[in-house]
Amino acid sequence: MKNPEMVSKPNQERRLEKETGQSPITSRRRRALLKQTDGIPFEQMPYQCFQEARKVLQEDRKEKLEAIQQQRERIARLKESKVEPQDEGRKQHRLDSMRQKLERLKILADINDPVVKRRFEDGLGDMNKPIYRHLAHKKWLAYKRPLLMQRITQMNVMPDVLPHVEPLVSTELSFAKRRVQHGDIVDSRVSEIAPKMTIQPYDRGERLYTIAVVDPDVPNVEKDGFDYRCHFLAANILISPTSTNVRFSTLDAESQTIIPWLPPYSQKGLKYSRLAIFILEQPLLDPLAPGTSALRSQSLDVAAIKAAGRYTQRAGFILRSLVNSQKLKPAGVDLFRTQYDEGTAGVMQRAGIEGWDVEFKRKRIEPLPYKRLKGESTNPSLLAAPRPTPTAKRTQKQDSEITSRYIQLVDPSTNRLYEDPATEQPLPPRTLRGVLATLDFKTHRLIQVSPDEPRNRDFIPVCKIVEKKDEYRREKSRKEAQKESKALQAKTNSVKTLELNWAIDGNDLSHRLDRVKVFLEEGRKVEIVVASKKKGRKATVEECQGLLGRVREVVDGVKGAREMKAFDGKIGGFGVVVLQGKGTLGGKEEGVGKQAGEGEVPVAKSWGVSELEKRKAHVEAQSRKAAELAETTAKGIARVDSPTSKLSHEPTFKPSGFNPRHDAFLALQMAEFARLPKQEQEDMLDPVKRHQKGVLGAKGEYADELADDEDYGDLAKFAG
């Protein structure tokens, strides 16, 4: 079923449009009715009600035809009658009224005829007849005209170009067979060629019109505002109800075209430009007799207008002045917009328009004094200075940006020149215009691969045609990889801080260290802060060493983790250690440095040392420490104050958990305590046990530091 007048089901309609490209005619109900009547004409349908209705309509039409004949006779008698010269105007006014009534009678005679409605719905109406002009005008007034008025009002075509427009004719604009809705944005490459316009009047006869295309959004930097520019101006265009098509490019250059077509463009930095198209009716001459077929308009002298030069300049074109001087009447309007796109620069260069490389930027407005930031300059020249233009990411020319006339194409998959299969020789260069004409800009893009050679006149650039979808995928993959890299870098540079208590419970410690392990595996930096609570339980030295050992086990268990900053602080007091996940050790793992001599404390230089070696070094250091403290107590304090004493030097790293400087002061306090009388020793010993205060109280310089130390029990043993 491929007959557009017989299909009556939705699937048949879709198949018809897909296979033949035709749309079904009229309503589905009437098509189903025609399909069931086996070719009987529509006006002979054998339905009694329908035929009775047609009889009533035919009787009414006969009455209207008789009234039409009477009206024509009255018009003829009035026209042949002779009146005084002073009454000639009244006679002409009465003739005009009678002719208008005659047109209404003609419309009423056919308004209810189903055959007329069918022909109008099928698009077969004769626009020379009043009934079809009336139906078309009514359809235009129902939707398209309110839409047009809404667009030109919303976009301020009125009053920017003309103060008032009351459309009487309908317009339809198209560029290269592409219809443009009122107010649509048109690609600059599409609007480069002059358009075609359909102007449909709804009055009888032929009339002359003037068409003007004006851009009211031309930026003027000097006055900080906008000017007008005329893109097209032509006069003496004959339009009738049956002759409606106007091609801007085929109008006569001598008798019609005043300003030829200029491709619309909007420069970089501007939002968009409005292109308003005005249909201006030229003044009417006196109408002819009723039997004539046309109402002739007054013709404009195009040669005189060009010679005057007032309306031949594009820049600063004022349409109001043209309308007033030539007594034109706005009869129609249309609108489309253009904005800066990837083809605008090439369009401007081909049209010889200057400023294709100019970018407009909004001037910064100086803030009010109370809104000005602290230290902000008040110099207007500095405030209005343009900001530097960021460098473009794209370095290759695309599509219309390519300025060479000829190009050499390469295969995008192999990057080799296309070859002739017969001769296996590279194909000759092709014209840029021919290549662009075959491109679908929605899916493909032409890219210039080789850089320009300005000094080489015979330079032919190498170009390739790429698919936008593939470019989008590559760009998307690049951005995702860059995003993942930034996320990983941010994660690696982020610092996680955990606080531990020396006397922390075993389960809590395991949970915290699990979190440390997760952070190290993610490559994060971890800062562990160890301290004791003021009112909490004090941890023993063995518990403190065990906590640090647990931390070392976690670091050793994560591949690539390392100690970034050594433990800095006091065992049992406040200390900080910084770890780095997924890193490498700065060098080889070192054990206990050099063999400790007498009085020396061995130092572990890296967290890579095994736990057994650390514990062994710690035990040896504690033994030597106890022996030296006993010797210092017996001999006095002279050796402690000596600058050559090895106990007065603090090692650079203290994994074994003691501070030699602190132990030296402890020995000093113990020696002074031994020289005190027995009663004073007992008085001072009791507050040490109860309140964990210093041995010397307020008298001693290091009393508070000693009070927080876990080794104050050694003082009590010594005193006993």
TrEMBL record:
Biological process per Gene Ontology, one example term: mitochondrial translational initiation
Region feature (Disordered): 1-38, 376-401, 640-659
Name this polypeptide is given: Large ribosomal subunit protein mL38
CDD domains, alphabetized: PEBP_euk
Entries under InterPro entries matching the protein: PEBP, PEBP-like_sf, PEBP_euk, T_IF-3_C_sf, Translation_initiation_fac_3
Species of provenance: Cryoendolithus antarcticus
Coiled coil: 54-81
One Pfam family it belongs to: PBP
Transmembrane segments: none
Family: Belongs to the IF-3 family. Belongs to the phosphatidylethanolamine-binding protein family. Mitochondrion-specific ribosomal protein mL38 subfamily.
A cellular component term, taken from the record's GO annotations: mitochondrion
UniProt xrefs under PANTHER family: TRANSLATION INITIATION FACTOR IF-3, TRANSLATION INITIATION FACTOR IF-3, MITOCHONDRIAL
Listed Basic and acidic residues bias regions: 11-20
Keywords (A to Z) from UniProt: Coiled coil, Initiation factor, Mitochondrion, Protein biosynthesis
Compartment annotation: Mitochondrion
Function in brief: Component of the mitochondrial ribosome (mitoribosome), a dedicated translation machinery responsible for the synthesis of mitochondrial genome-encoded proteins, including at least some of the essential transmembrane subunits of the mitochondrial respiratory chain. The mitoribosomes are attached to the mitochondrial inner membrane and translation products are cotranslationally integrated into the membrane.
MF-aspect GO terms: ribosome binding; translation initiation factor activity
Keyword Protein biosynthesis attached: yes
Keyword Iron-sulfur: no
